[in-house]
Write a structure and sequence with these properties.
The chain is globular and about 70 Å long. The protein is mainly alpha-helical and 495 residues long. β1 (13-14) and β2 (18-19) form a beta hairpin. It contains 20 helices and two strands. Strands 1-2 form a two-stranded antiparallel sheet. The two termini are 35 Å apart. The protein has helices at residues 28-38, 44-63, 68-74, 84-113, 115-134, 139-152, 156-165, 172-197, 200-203, 213-216, 220-236, 252-260, 264-281, 287-315, 327-356, 362-375, 384-415, 422-453, 462-479, 490-493; strands spanning 13-14, 18-19. This is Major facilitator superfamily (MFS) profile domain-containing protein.
Length: 495
Amino acid sequence: MTGSSDGGGAPLLVGDGVMAEAWRERCPGCRQQRKVQASDRIPYADFLFIWISCLCAALPIQSLFPYLYFMIRDLKVAKEEQDIGFYAGFVGATYFLGRTISAVPWGMFADKYGRKPCIVISILSVVVFNTLFGLSTTYWMAIVTRGLLGLLCGILGPIKAYASEVCRKEHQALGISLVTSSRAIALVIGPAIGGFLAQPAQKYPNLFSEESIFGRFPYFLPCFVISVLAAGSCVACIWLPETLHFHNDDKVDAIDELEAQAGDSNLEAVKAKESRGESTKNLLKNWQLMSAVILYCIFSLHDTAYLEIFSLWAVSSRKFRGLSLTSQDVGTVLAVSGFGVLVYQLAIYPFLAKYLGPIKPFRPAAVLSILLLATYPFMANLNGLELKILINIGSLLKNMFAATITIACNILQNTAVTQEQRGVANGISVTLMSMFKAVAPAAAGILFSWAQKHISGLFLPGDQILFLILNMVSIIGLVLTFKPFFSLPNVMSRS
């Protein structure tokens, strides 16, 4: 692992206890670390490449939902229209399943072979498998290409480490925020690409004929556009510096000798590392951390299931109490709400957090989200402009509440552990969260298909039961925010 010094010169000990005299001219990590120490400027070019790479990796996730219903319908795998949601759920789930399986191995790969190869391979996987997904002619081809995309796109963990290593300590928060902001931008651009560019021969017959490749493969154009962006990002990766240290084994003894000369200072560093190692073993016993992680996973499950259900429900037929919107309409709704959430996070939430703190809005946001979703089934009784206005407002508010909850969960996780443990703690969180997100689309698709087959004949219409069950997940999460299951970290309870 690499480390960074926050001093301006060349101190006796830098990084993870490696002496300044032990710099390796052929080591890319050493060269980058010296470059970072030599200047206190923000590395705008490196940050730009990081932002573009994260954006290209996030776009395939967000662009899928506006047209997924129509894609499954056209693949003719569903025997009945009510079964479309069942099959669509597994397409959405395979990406997250692949990411769950590969998250830890990709982290190990990045620690051994470097951050840059991991980033390049991840972007190349978007170019290849996102393109193949758009060319899918069978359901199983869509499943396999989507799963391989999640399996081989291991950028999420390593890019966070890279963003903190490519700059000085005082700029690390900015670097990490780029990862989050790029995914927020993907919430705007992704649905717009998927909604407006899917089925181009039907929407833009003057530009695309039925005989063209975009007519024969109606869902290829949005995938192709994203793949072209990813290819450009992959070329830009040429200028990315490597930040991992590569020191030959035959020079380890020399480094050890130099470290030994540091005396008591180095001894303190060793003791600190041993202390961190012991405390890492106890992370799973840290109930404040694990309760925050469990809350994060539950609300992540809810948000992913909501996105799947909303996208299917919005385009389904009126006879199944859907909204009969087009993929373009759904893309517009998701893009508008994504842009609104971005504005909310940048302009409104900071003031909310300043006066109320980041934790107090948690429970009100969960309660308001539950009340809002309870009104969704009744929107099927609306038409025209009234429907479009209300569904945009509802989607925007729902995503604002979700953003408030997610930010609070992340703060709770990071305040429950010491600074030295946050990397491992977030690794545990991402792995568990990915598992829940892998389950969510499949479960949501099965539930949606069941609801369409039981529109009547039960104590409630199927669509109301659908959103009731979705709300039950939020209610469980809300209940778990109270004692004895959950208690605020000491630093938060005092604030």
